[in-house]
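Morning F.,

Quick status update on the modeling queue. The single chain you submitted on Monday has been processed. Sequence for confirmation:
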Amino acid sequence: MDITLEHPVHARLITTGRELPVPVTLRYTSADPLAVHLDFPAHISLSGEVATWTFARSLLEEGLDAAAGIGSVHIWPCGPLRTVVELHAPEGVAMVWFDPAVLRRFLLRSYTVVEPADESLGAALDQGLTSLLGGV
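Structure tokens below.
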């Protein structure tokens, strides 16, 4: 039986000279135990559809205490009251900041679903390959 945590949070999108409030849903599921998901609402997406960013749960853990990430997602603490998540896409870069206490609580709740030592790399690898290859 798969267990999914969903936690709506208020984040701030950092734009040129302004910060805009953005509702984001943090999501973790036992079906994909190595990952966390950030779901952004359709009204802020360039495509007009819900945008989901998926990255390693370990990246979130690392980024709460020090700069972490390579590729399309980078996370780092920015003082005691902010954690910045930087998202790179072909269309550009988005920077969103979160209350680190909220992220830490979400991370701790995810450990009650699947402890870090109990993550099954085999199942996650199978799921990723199936997704990548389109079920071939």
